[in-house]
Amino acid sequence: MKNNFVCIVLFWFTILGYTQTKISGHIIDSKENSIAYATIRVLNSSVITTSDQQGKFTLQKTNKNTIIEVSALGYATKIIKPDTDTITIVLQQSTEKLDEVIVSAQKREETLVNTAIAVTSIDSKKVKATRTWDLSGLTAIIPNYLYQELGVGFQQVQSIRGVQVFSENPAVATYIDDVNNLDILANGFVLTDIERIEVLRGPQGTLFGRNAMGGVVNITTKKPTNTTSGYAELGFGNLNLNRHSVGLKTPIIKNKLFFGFSGIFQDRDGYWRNDASLALVPNTSLDGETIGDERNLYGNLFLKWLATERLNATLNIKAQRDWSNASGFFVSQPNDQIAFEQPDKIYLSRLASHKRNIINTSFVVKYNAPTLALTSISTYQNIGLSFENVDFSDGAFYHSFTESSFGEKLPNQEVWSQEIRVNSTNDSPLQYTAGAYGFTQVAYEPSTNIALQPSTNEVSTVFGLSPDTSTIFTNKGNNHGIAFFGEMSYKITNQFTITAGLRYDYEKRESTFNGFGDRLFSNGITTENQGPITLDGTYDALSPKLALSFAPTEHSNLYISYNRGFRAGGINAQRLPEGVNETFDPEYSNNYEIGYKINTLENKLRIGAAIFYIDWTDLQFFNQIALGTFARENVGDATSMGIEIEASAIPIKRLQIDASFGLTNTEYKDFILNRDRVVSFDPVIIEENREDISGNDLSNTPSHTLFLGAQYTIPIHKKTNATLRGEFRNIGKYYTDIQNTLEQPNYSLLNAKATFDFGKYSVAFWGQNLADEVYLSYGNADTSFGRNVRTGIPMTYGTSFSIKF
């Protein structure tokens, strides 16, 4: 018994790491000058420290195979695997070497070159240099990526390799600091104080689950460390732009408790002028009003506790408020011809308003044993939305509505989720990631919780309503899901690695809703002609992954992979004719890929390339099942194939060049739509119409994307530098609609930026779309009954002033 007790004690002492050792080091530059306040971090752990004023540091060694990342302002990030407990690390200036890139694409930290996935990582320096203030800034930087917006950042369409969304469930999963935005209404966070943005291209269902059919956008913001630091920035530009931000990170208790905060206020006028004389209901008092104004107030708070050298917990709260009294939410220009001829004009009878409040909360606990890491991620998301007087050019105004008046705040959407994950952290040939994930969601999707108010008595007659009567649509969703996943990689030899993974998702969706005319609102009185109905559906899916990679050298990798993604099915939240399915099935995407990555020329050149083929099946789209009634059905399949190339280089000192290119060929298959038309109102005459779009290109999929960026740093004085940057983005021709009639021709954007750094002070001057190119930021996905579009933002320019401490 005594021997057993001793064995148990020794076992737990080993697991808890009481036999740890420390690494002592000195960080210097190429001239052997000490580098103070460098950040030293152990990968896949919570261990982090900073160098002192003499460049010295001491770091806990988590296991014999510890890998550390070393970064410092003005120097290229370096990844090393210490072979002794006393080391000297030499950092090269960032104008001489490229950063060694770490990604968490496979839910564990590893070098970019060793990751058998097509993934682009944009670090904080590049986010700032490219002025990526929101996800629209990723277009063309990420090959075969396109961002489109329905007037506000929280209603957006992201397309990767042609895979995109036609519903409230995203096709590209977006994570920000471990919180998954299950609904597209949860997107639109203002980007500030970013650590890195990773974009995984192609389905990622095994590790990320539902709604990662096209890929994943994984955003990480900066966390507090042992060093007190902060910044403040003031930004101004045309369209009355004001963008002002602050941030502070500091230890409350050295090596134990840390606090971090960043916040931003952004205010900008719209770029359209209203011509109300040409609106459906003329209102000349609104002539000349700007449309698309928006204000955003965002805050991001961290509290991190290192309970022990192996156990840590992080509480993160993000909150954002968006509002406007001249909103661009869902409003549009009447057709593409008018939009291209007069891109700064819009024709509205009323000015819309919107308010959205969103809170993302996460509590992450990590425990690092010598050979594995345990992670618990608990999240809560709350979204409130209201809108009024949305004029969508179809003869009606749309408002949020709950009880008694237009523009009432909808009930809050709420999402709870929990993920528990275990990762191996040793240097064994076998590496693994396994876990479980569950969520519950209460959803009030904005397009099915509205008051539809006809704009004229004539339109009321068409809708079958009495004058001044609005119909009220309501829909509450209760969704629950659970998943189990695992992925293993085995190093067959020093060069060959095989990876296999599998995920099982189960989801139950419930919807309570009413139908057209069931609930009416007139003169302040609500009439309920028929009560709501409740339906549910269950869906499950297996998402496998298989990859084989070959590493000819330590800095290169050739891989071949298969990944599967899925998007859950759902319920048509409206009363449908008898015999029509109220539910629809999931979508699936299967991705086959060959890729190659290399870092060469002493880390002065980095290249990545991929060839892919995607088989997208059971697409969900709206079919007409009765006059004026549409239901989402699984109407067809599609394929997408193409190539992607990315490169970064420092050909000469102080000059960095970045480039990316994507080429895509797509096609709808066996895709037939029902689209009956009303050709006469008196009497009502209906023309049967079936549209076969098989053979068409996928909508919102440019034939190619091209990005070229170059920046040159000029030393002026000891602590004074000037950085000049230019960018060229070219987006190939594509159609916004599945019918391939609404075309966005090939277009190019020219951007430039000049930054002057004076020690801790900085001044920047920037310009976007300097050629004032006219292009569409949105167009109908279905042009059977209209061609509503939105033009993209014209030339903008501005300046910013910042200080760091």
TrEMBL record:
PROSITE patterns: TONB_DEPENDENT_REC_3 (PS52016). This is TonB-dependent receptor. The keyword ATP-binding does not apply. Keywords: Cell outer membrane, Ion transport, Iron, Iron transport, Membrane, Receptor, TonB box, Transmembrane, Transmembrane beta strand, Transport. It holds the Pfam family TonB_dep_Rec_b-barrel. It is found in: Cell outer membrane. It comes from the Bacteria. It comes from Aquimarina algicola. InterPro entries: Beta-barrel_TonB, Beta-barrel_TonB_sf, CarboxyPept-like_regulatory, Plug_dom, TonB-dep_rcpt-like. Gene3D superfamilies: Carboxypeptidase-like, regulatory domain, TonB-dependent receptor, beta-barrel domain. GO terms for biological process: iron ion transport. Belongs to the TonB-dependent receptor family. It is a multi-pass membrane protein. One of its GO terms (cellular component) is cell outer membrane. Residues 113-216 form the TonB-dependent receptor plug domain. The lineage of its organism: Bacteria, Pseudomonadati, Bacteroidota, Flavobacteriia, Flavobacteriales. PANTHER family: FERRICHROME IRON RECEPTOR-RELATED, TONB-DEPENDENT OUTER MEMBRANE RECEPTOR. Residues 356-770 form the TonB-dependent receptor-like beta-barrel domain.
